[in-house]
Amino acid sequence: MKADASDAEIREAIKRIESYNLTALNLPGGERVAIGIASAIPPELRETLAEVLESLPGVDRITHVSRAYKLASREFHEANTVIDIKGVRIGGNEVVVAAGPCAIESHEQLFAAAKSVKEYGGKLLRGGAYKPRTSPYSFQGLGVEGLKLLSEAGKEFGLVTVTEIIDQHDIDVVAKHADIMQVGARNMQNYPLLTAIGRSGHPVVIKRGPSATIDEWLLAAEYVLAQGNTNVILCERGVHPLDREHTRYTLDLSSVPVVKLLSHLPVIVDPSHACGNWKYVSSMSKAAIAAGADGLLLEIHPDPSHALCDGSQSLKPDAFGELMSYLKKVAEAIGRYVD
Ligand code: PEP
Ligand code: MN
Fold it and tell me: For 262-277, what is each residue's pLDDT tens digit?
């Protein structure tokens, strides 16, 4: 729509689209409103619809999107999407760091981790309360008790919180306690879960599945966007490796510039799960920022050797602190900053 389009003009454009049995989404941007058509448009309707809409007052232009993902594409939305959560802006010029334990284990463990995140300049606190473990006999997370600890720690240290959701029935309780939901690699193609998160409107990080192509990953984001939820952050966390001898997955850093070109959504990188070994996490964190990532998702633990989950890839607090000081320099070198 034109920057000065009135509410009535916006409503009229939406009504016209809906009169063809299509879904129209009102998507306010910084300066103007975009209206996305979140449906497949029958080919025979395309031209007529474009002509009808073009003639309406308040309509600036019609954009035909060639990609399967429409709302996620940069063709549809040219400017970077910046997601503001409690004043933390993800996708802007600032590089933001989320850190915390793989799993929330206790008050003592989580609060010690949160203290380090705050001390060294992280903006977000991560921690899993529901863990998707390969074995049913492994620690599965503290559930609601863990969510409550996360919310307390977030408040205590002034950190935005992020936690994984594995079951769509937990949406309300996770939304109540955490600022951002994380859809894990194993659930990237859980479409009912993505749709439910889309309906909730809650901010979400969608991790790339280890076997997912970039287009499949962007289509996962499209499931959330198609419900009118524009608070979507993508997270690269490594793809299936050639061998597992030295690293857990292969960090596909080339996906960062590719996704930044194809999409307007913020992209962050999780080098912890990609490497599976804390020794490589700092190098790949620096590389991720250099490659254009908008942020990092890191696992840290006050006592990694006793961690209940993913201790081998977790940084100790002092190593995290040292990394943060280097990240500031890398960000600066490419015209960005870590606050
Ligand atoms: C996690 O972040 O702890 C996690 C389980 O990650 P992924 O879904 O990438 O394996
Ligand atoms: Mn983990």
Answer: 999 999 999 999 999 9
Which residue out of 124, 163, 237 has the highest number of ligand 1 atoms within 8 Å of its CB and is therefore the one to mutate?
237
**Cross-strand bridge partners of residue 233:** 205
Q: How far is CA 335 from the centre of its chain?
A: 22
Query: What's the gap in Å between 184 CA and the centre of ligand 1?
Result: 5
Q: What atom of ligand 1 comes closest to residue 238's alpha carbon?
A: 9
Integer-rounded Cα Rg, in Å, for the chain is 21
Report how far apart, in Å, the C-alpha atoms of 122 and of each of 93, 127, 286 are: 16, 14, 15
User: Global pTM?
Assistant: 0.96
Among 30-44, 104-118, 194-208, 241-255, where is mean pLDDT lowest?
30-44
**In contact, 198 and 223? CB cutoff 8 Å:** yes
| Ligand 1 and 123: CB distance under 6 A | no
The response to whether residue 184 sits with its C-beta less than 6 Å from ligand 1 reads: yes
User: Which ligand 1 atom is the nearest neighbour of the CA of 184?
Assistant: 8
CB 295 within 8 A of CB 90: yes
| Mutational pocket test of ligand 1: of 130, 133, 182, 234, the residue with most ligand atoms within 8 Å of the beta carbon | 182
Give residue-wise pLDDT tens across range 87-111.
Answer: 999 999 999 999 999 999 999 999 9
Cβ-based burial of 246 (10 A; exposed 0-12, middle 13-18, buried ≥19) = exposed
